[in-house]
Amino acid sequence: RPNCSVRALQSIASRVGGTGIRYDESALKEDAEGAILFVPAAKAEEAQKALSAVGSVVVSDTWNGSSADRLDRIESAAQDRLTTLHDQRQELLVKYFDDAPQIKHIDEDSLRINKSLGALRAHRPGPNFAVLKIRFLG
């Protein structure tokens, strides 16, 4: 289901001349937690209206500052989660070996978040773009 939602969101973004990526900032669920859309600022309202037609998603917040500031804020939440995961991993290493399931799980979550950050950094939009952070409900 989230994959369909990601495709629907990317389609909305491309219709207004933008792009979208799936995005996991905490890797708490099995599937993607949401997406980030990069749309021309002049079309942001149009994109938000179209988003309301996509079921089970919510625009978690809108941002009036620069897109660079917005991306820094989005990135810092993911970085905080990575720090937490790293700390948990260090605590588990006292009791378990590297290949223990608990540690592998943390490594997989960290990898997902790092992939999302990589995709985010590859999509640095220009100043005339709005950045919409979408969260999947459920």
Polypeptide structure, described:
This protein is an alpha+beta fold. 53% of the residues lie in helices and 18% in strands. The chain contains four helices and four strands. It has helices at 2-15, 44-51, 67-95, 101-122, and strands at 19-23, 34-40, 57-61, 129-136. The protein has a four-stranded antiparallel sheet with strand order 1-2-4-3, with helices on both faces. The longest helix has 29 residues, at 67-95. The protein is elongated, with a radius of gyration of 16 Å. The termini are close together. The mean pLDDT is 87.
Features:
138 residues, alpha+beta, 4-stranded antiparallel β-sheet, 18% strand
Please write out the topology.
Elements: H1 2-15, E1 19-23, E2 34-40, H2 44-51, E3 57-61, H3 67-95, H4 101-122, E4 129-136
Antiparallel strand pairs: 1-2, 2-4, 3-4
